[in-house]
Design brief:
Layout lengths: L1 H13 L10 H23 L20 H32 L2 H15 L7 H17 L4 H13 L7 H33 L4 H27 L2 E3 L4 H12 L4 E7 L10 E6 L2 E7 H6 L2 H16 L2 H19 L1 H4 L2 H6 L4 H5 L3 H11 L1 H27 L1 H5 L7 H15 L8 H7 L5 H19 L1
Parallel strand pairs: 2-4
Antiparallel strand pairs: 1-2, 3-4
Length: 462
Amino acid sequence: MDLLHTQLNNIQRHLAFVAVDPINWKLYVQSFSWAVTIFESYLLIRQYPLYSKTEPPAVLAQHFDPGVFEKSQNYGKDKAKFALFSGIFKQLLDSLMLQFGFYAWSWSVAGTLLAKVGYGAEYQILQSIAFVFILFVLSSIPTLPLPAYGTFVLEEKHGFNKTTPKLFITDLLKGWGLAFVLGAPFLAVFLYIFQWAGDRFVPWLMGFMISFQLIMVVLYPTVIQPLFNKLSPLAEGDLRQRIESLAGNLKFPLKHLYEIDGSKRSSHSNAYFFGLPWSKHIVIFDTLIQQSKPEEVEAVLAHELGHWYYLHPTKMLAISQFHIFTVLALFPAFLHAPPLLRSFDFPKAVAAQPPTILAFLMFQMILTPLEAVVSIAMNAVSRHFEWEADRFAVELQDKLQDEKMSDMGDRLGRALIAIHVKNLSTVWVDWLYSAYHHSHPTLTERLRGLESFQANRQKKSQ
């Protein structure tokens, strides 16, 4: 532990200038956040001409009924225009909040409100929670028209929306309630660790955050998910038998197999698994069951079990923890930096002893350009894992010595095509747009990959 803290102290010595140099951090954040927004807009502009193509890729031509490809292209155009507008609108809102001292004002309001109920400045954790709540609510209100438009105009226009206005408002209020019920205690413990551990907070904070994630793995299916969707045991039948047999043969620790009423909100389809290492839950959207044959859904689940087989969730967790560790290792230099808060319009009295939540929030803003680069790297890792999971499905016959699995690659290909066609997903994708935005390879890339995996498997078996 002493070695860790010695290395962390070395990092702080290199960043000592942050605590004394009057750097214009506001200008830095404004410049780089706009640079990221402009770059994302550029990617949309690169992608947009591909929605004018009148024919799908040759490998997919036979799978699109007349008019369906045109619908998918129109859907893509509308989503791109909406993404362009919403991205610029959100950035403009963030920029105005930053420029006119909204964060300093919110901190002051939080302190004033607490003072009226008898809590002074010494109750910094309470003021921090109030500050975050004020910030969250007031910054969310101007953006409410965006999800409403996306749901009731864009998704409605293209036949996907199943959400009623009542359900939309209920979901919104439930989300806000959960954010407070879970966020307030999380933030309280998060900030208490800083008070208790001082500058040696990094390992303790890492331990707390990992513990919180494990707790959420347990709470999500039992407490949170049922607030929004109904999870029912998958009905007896061919599909259930296929999945249970597959899980049993792979020794996948399946505890529950659910069907979720995704059609309650949308016609889009999906499937996923979650849980602790010894207790996993598989969830299948009712829309996927309706849109695909049992053998195709089985292939989708074979791909998902490939992620489990190769420990992809664990690896992603390790990578994300390393990323969090890197961020926290840099933070102490910004934690004790009055010039940082002064740059963001906080008064001298507040900046002299920077509250942890304020320093951390400003620090997160400064990391904006770095996080954009990190997201590209994380997408690259995720796509590599997707290739491995696809290869796992193709090679399942060899792993299980079961001839019934010989066509798993073909089944997965058909399932992917059906999902893309039913969801009107874009099939022409610019490579740079995909690298930045997509955690999965494109459909045509995956189909070529499946063909390659099957060819390699056949060569090995000869």
